[in-house]
Amino acid sequence: MGKADQAQSAVADPAAEADARAYVARVMAEIEEEVRLHRSSGDLPPKLERELDELFLAHSPVAGRGGDLTEALRMVDAATFVDPVVPIASERAAGMVVKKGMRTLLLWYVGWITHQVSQFASAVSRTLHIVDGRLQQLERQVDAQRVASAGVVEFPGVHQADAWWVGPAVEAVRSVPGRIVHAASGDGWLVRKIIAAGGDAYGVDPRSEPVDQGVLTVSDLRGEELADHLRAVVPAGLGAIVLSGVVDGMSSGERAQLLRLIGTTLAPDGVLVVHSLSRSAWESADAPSEADLAPGRPLRAETWRHLLAQGGYKATVAHGPGDTDYLVSAVRATVSPAEPTLPQ
Amino acid sequence: MSAAGPHGPSAAVHQFIPTLNPRDATGTHALLLRDILRAAGWRSEIFAEAIHDDLAAEAHKHWRYPEYAARGDVHIYQFSTSSAVAGYLADRAEPLIVNFHNFTGPEHFAGWEPHTEQRALRARAELARLAPRTSLGLADSHYNERALRQAGYRRTTVAPVLVDYARVRAAPDRRVAAELARAKGRGGSDILFVGRIVPSKRQHDLVKALWAYRRLYDPDARLHLVGGTSSFAYLKALRGFVGELGLTDSVRITGDVSDAALSAYFAAADVYLSLSAHEGFGVPLVESMVAGVPVVTRAAGAVVETVGDAALRLAGTDPLYVAATLRRVCTDATLRRWLVEAGRRRVPALSLDAVGPQFVRAVATVAGSAR
User: Fold this and answer.
1) By a Cβ cutoff of 8 Å, what residues of chain B touch chain A?
2) What is the pLDDT of residue A325?
3) DSSP-assigned letters across all residues of A152-171
4) What stretches of chain A adopt beta strand conformation (E)?
5) What whole-number distance in Å separates Cα of residue A259 and Cα of residue A309?
6) Spatial distance between the Cα atoms of B204 and A115, rounded to a whole number of angstroms
7) CATH architecture assignment, domain A166-332
8) Distance of alpha carbon B234 from alpha carbon B102, whole angstroms
9) Chain A residues inside the 8 Å CB shell of B114
10) Closest by Cβ to B321, choosing from A35, A215, A219
11) Residues A132-137: contacts with CB under 8 Å, at least 24 apart
12) Which of A23, A27, A37, A179 to mutate to test the interface with B (most CBs of B within 10 A)?
């Protein structure tokens, strides 16, 4: 009895199942070995697959080629000439004769039309090349002044469940009416704490790896940018927002944009909790390199208090041991003084 | 799961679906589920935004639901694409179960079908919109369940899609069977794929694999691509590619076929090959197992869950690797027999008898017991 026959006779028990898996693994290993031999003998080199892909893409629509403008323009150029000589191939002999006759009869008419279409297409193509040239020039200028978006910057010992600020943050949000969002949530370590304390929390984080890990144990983690998420939330739809590892390295423009979005999505009497590193911790020698590369630097706690007061929040600040970080808890007033009132 | 739900006993569990089509996985699922719900004691009707003429007697337009509404109704939404039905249900108050079949992501249509890309984006937004008012998210694979969780669904469970796999055992279409037999008489293997011709199913990768397989092992091999299309741009590119490789006589693009013709294709196939980049479940993979055709498939989306250990699973689409795998399956009798037997053992777990009760139990957690 061969290995495969043994495997198929009793796959219901775990030993047979393991046998079956071993059999399939052996087959796949043999296939891999054959592939290796073919490769080393020069049959179907890897570049051939790329050539096949290119051949296929030559038949795809312009935009199907990854949005490369130069390639798209090359396609436009190639399609500029409209051929009036229609193919006449047919599965039936009579069909070819009929088609040829029709083509001859209509060529004077079709040719006149296609000539004008070709002229128009050439003019469009020339225009697109001019636009392309100007765009490239602009791109070069903009590229030199581009400000990168701040990613999540987490410090060891600071962004974890037993950090000093976690208890006060959970306490500040656990009884708010409405849902609580934590960003950047990682694998949901703070979301779990808030849920355990009775809050209805979920997490948002743009990093797919911790979200994929956390989604198995935390019911609600979203793998997206916080700003994108807040844009999709209904106005005044959130009870509280907890930020950690998010705002520290933001540029002033990005921070202002985020605060505007928070102002729209946070319910009246909602709570905003901001955890931030201090400047000294941010600049310390053991700070992660993401901190160095971030476009901005952490604000001082007093600056946060000032900013939030302008936005109609009542904020309190707590400092961590050794002045490495601080926590701002702010309650949004029912009517923000910064919001203009309608004329009566 | 408990049989008594939070909303108490209910007399009616109605389904809503974007489009009710015959020979369509979601449509077939809805019809079978309706029969199962009725057999379990609930009243059950189907409401759809669009209904195929052949099924006009089986369903009602969704906006006619108020004529049938009664206190205690529970709704099941068969979510497979964007539809006005999603908005309609979002604004109603009845307890809702979202039966999620997944939808092909917009990234797969980018550059090919702008309209379909937009539709996929809308579907994503509709899925999130329904999350807060959904009592239960019912996914047909753990892969789909993860997508529900990511969209904000808090209570979820898994039950495979309902399929009447008997259709692949229908009497084969004589004309198609004779044509396939004539070709087989000239030698060469028959490779089969069943599914819509769309970018996400990656039929062009199947053509690349065929090209490599013919060049290295079997110059007379043929590829049968069975299924209609919802992407004419992709179909056009695929035809052009096939022509450019000189494979026009070896690649048959059949369009939609009858159950009898499908049965003929399964009967003639030496191997079922799928290199699809996205599958929420993969009904034809199971149909191949029912038909006794060995399966070689790319491990994408929910495929691994669907086939279990009953298929050779590929990590990628490298034509040489795929060709070597095809050759092994087509020439190694022991492996073929093993795959066919493993497939047959896999099928009962996905059969109506096994899956139907799972649905009844899941629905009962929301609707309460029917009797």
Assistant:
1) 110-112, 114, 125, 128, 146, 149-150, 152, 154, 204, 207-208, 211-212, 215-216, 233-234, 236-238, 240-241, 244-245, 309, 312, 318-321, 323-325, 328, 332, 334-335, 337-338, 341-342, 345
2) 94
3) ----TTTSSTTSTTHHHHHH
4) 179-183, 201-204, 221-222, 238-244, 266-277, 313-319, 325-332
5) 12
6) 35
7) 3-Layer(aba) Sandwich (3.40)
8) 21
9) 63
10) A35
11) A132/A69, A132/A70, A132/A73, A135/A69
12) A27
Task: Verify whether the Cβ–Cβ distance A44 to B212 is below 8 Å.
Answer: yes
Nearest CA in chain A to B321: A35
CB contact under 8 Å between A63 and B244, yes or no, is no
Binary contact (B208, A52; C-beta < 8 A): yes
Domain locations in chain B?
Answer: 13-158+351-367, 166-331
Nearest CA of chain A to the CA of B58: how many Å? 37
Among A4, A32, A59, the residue with its CB nearest the CB of B240 is: A59
Would the CB atoms of A61 and B152 count as touching at under 8 Å? no
- Supply the CATH classification number for the domain B13-158+351-367: 3.40.50.2000
Average pLDDT for chain B: 91
Is B12 within 8 Å of B368 (Cβ atoms)?
no
Which of A60, A204, A218 is most worth mutating to test chain B (most B CB atoms within 10 A of its CB)?
A: A60
Q: What is the pLDDT along chain A (344 residues), one digit of tens a residue?
A: 344 444 444 344 566 667 878 888 899 999 999 988 888 887 777 677 778 888 898 888 755 555 677 777 887 887 788 888 888 877 677 889 999 999 999 999 999 999 999 999 999 999 999 999 999 899 888 888 777 777 888 888 888 899 999 999 999 998 888 899 999 999 999 999 999 999 989 999 998 888 877 877 766 888 888 998 998 887 888 999 999 999 999 998 899 999 999 998 998 889 999 999 999 999 988 888 888 888 899 999 999 999 999 888 999 999 999 889 999 999 987 644 444 333 33
pLDDT digits (tens, 9 = 90+) for B179-197: 999 999 999 999 999 999 9
Nearest chain B residue (CA) to A202: B152
Contact B354, B286 (CB under 8 A): no
Contact between A31 and B216 using a beta-carbon 8 Å cutoff: no
State the sign of the Cα–Cα–Cα–Cα dihedral B31, B36, B38, B44: negative
Contact B82, B102 (CB under 8 A): no
d(CA A277, CA A152) in angstroms, rounded, equals 13
Q: Which of A24, A71, A185, A238 to mutate to test the interface with B (most CBs of B within 10 A)?
A: A24
Confidence at B10, pLDDT banded by 50, 70, 90: low
Question: What is each CA distance from B261 to A59, A209, B20, B175, B274, in whole angstroms?
Answer: 30, 45, 22, 9, 19
Residues of chain B neighbouring A24 (CB-CB closer than 8 A) = 309, 312
User: CATH class for domain B166-331?
Assistant: alpha beta
Percentage of the residues of chain B whose pLDDT score is greater than 70: 96
Neighbours of A254 (CB within 10 A): 18
Domain definitions of chain A by residue range: 3-44, 80-145, 166-332
